[in-house]
Design brief:
mainly alpha; 2 domains; 5 helices; binds zinc ion
Length: 153
Amino acid sequence: MVCSICGEEYTAEKTCYNRTEANSWEAWMKNQEGTCPDCYKKKMQAEREEKLEAERIQHKKDNAEAALNATNRGLPELSGTPKQIAWANTIREKFLCSFRCKDGADEDVRIRFDMVINHVISNHATASSWIDNQNRFRSIMKEAQIEVANKNN
Ligand SMILES: [Zn+2]
């Protein structure tokens, strides 16, 4: 086999159980744009790095958006290192978006949720408390959801 990337000869191997299977596999392989193991490894590595880079960019975008939204919403500024603040802003933004009531929600429900959200937000002004307590904050909101659902039944 000739590698389609570097042009080097390489051998492809496969354990076949009989000659017919081996022949058909050989015929199939001949028509493949194959790559040698080295090039394959490099290709996979490059794809992995590309994906990581895309994630980094998305992450940066999320952080910038969350910081802007925090300012627009008039949320208290968080304290911590720039990296912590960026991350915590994103966590806080997601928290707000997933629990803020949709339009048309019951007035009672909206007030109860806003109260809990505001309480959490005004009591946690350090980036680290958002990073450390994100799961706890979520369960506080879940409890509020259950409480409201029970009241309405
Ligand atoms: Zn190659």
